[in-house]
């Protein structure tokens, strides 16, 4: 909807209504790259519900595309969306399954159109791959639990962080991955890193944001995931116990991470303001 041409001829009340209507019609889509676990279906309904609870807001329209099963948005409809979110996945972002290659092409198209894309875990990695970066298996193995990530000092301007009252020196986030970004795409900026992973967050302008951790996860989801990884022999008993013990001792900065993601997707730099009450270490 064109807003500015209405200024000269539209009554004030009608103009406000049109602006509110345009804002309320924002549309997003989740590109889901993992199937719902039995636990998530029982407790949360679906991963889609988990993502909407973390990143969605009232008045927005959200669609779901199960890209893992070959379900993709129509290329002719991409312009109708304000942004896309790519979920995590048990698959390798560097794999050559047809759906992964098709996802890479979609992400390249969205980048060229400068439509916002937020990548989470696998989504972070496949976004990097699609845009020319390098991803692969971490040489230090699994990273599961709550990890402190450090924000890069002297960041270049990016709207989704610029309105924080103070950019925190670090954030705690839930992690569950054994692959990582090895090299960011040309033109990308590393926003955060950790002692375990060199690229925890990266961005390209104000339309691409990758996050290695899971700002959408609750601790109960990770507890269940640890049990499933243990049951299928992906991790050892001792490591699972260490992870669970760590979950009892630390708390992720979910609220602030969610607000950063919402701010990125909405493009509303006034949305986060002073609501991230973090202890800077």
Automatic annotation (TrEMBL):
Ranges in a coiled coil: none
Pfam families linked to this entry: GATase
Protein name: Glutamine amidotransferase domain-containing protein
PANTHER family hit by this protein: GAMMA-GLUTAMYL PEPTIDASE 2-RELATED, GLUTAMINE AMIDOTRANSFERASE YLR126C-RELATED
One GO location term (cellular component): cytosol
Record GO terms (molecular function): peptidase activity
Lineage: superkingdom: Eukaryota
Origin species: Hevea brasiliensis
């Amino acid at each position: 909807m064109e807003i500015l041409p209405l200024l000269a001829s539209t009554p004030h009340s009608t103009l406000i209504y049109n602006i509110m209507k345009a804002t309320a019609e924002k549309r997003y889509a989740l590109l889901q790259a993992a199937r719902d676990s039995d636990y998530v279906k029982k407790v949360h309904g679906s991963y889609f519900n988990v993502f909407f609870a973390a990143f969605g807001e009232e008045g927005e329209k959200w669609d779901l595309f199960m890209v893992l099963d070959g379900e993709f948005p129509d290329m002719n409809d991409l312009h109708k969306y304000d942004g896309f979110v790519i979920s995590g996945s048990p698959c390798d972002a560097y794999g050559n399954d047809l759906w992964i290659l098709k996802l890479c092409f979609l992400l390249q198209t969205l980048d060229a159109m400068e439509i916002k894309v937020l990548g989470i875990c696998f989504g972070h990695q496949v976004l990097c791959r699609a845009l020319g970066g390098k991803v692969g298996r971490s040489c230090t193995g699994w990273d599961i639990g709550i990890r402190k990530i450090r924000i890069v000092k002297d960041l270049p301007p990016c709207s989704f962080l610029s309105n924080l009252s103070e950019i925190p020196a670090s954030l705690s986030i839930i992690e569950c991955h054994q692959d990582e970004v090895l090299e960011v795409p040309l033109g990308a900026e590393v926003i955060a890193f950790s002692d375990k992973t060199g690229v925890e967050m990266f961005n390209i302008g104000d339309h691409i944001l990758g996050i290695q951790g899971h700002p959408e996860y609750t601790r109960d989801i990770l507890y269940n995931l640890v049990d499933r990884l243990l049951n299928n022999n992906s991790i050892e008993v001792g490591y699972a116990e260490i992870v669970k013990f760590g979950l009892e001792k630390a708390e992720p900065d979910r609220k602030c991470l969610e607000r950063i993601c919402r701010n990125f997707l909405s493009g509303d730099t006034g949305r986060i303001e002073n609501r991230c009450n973090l202890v800077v270490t």
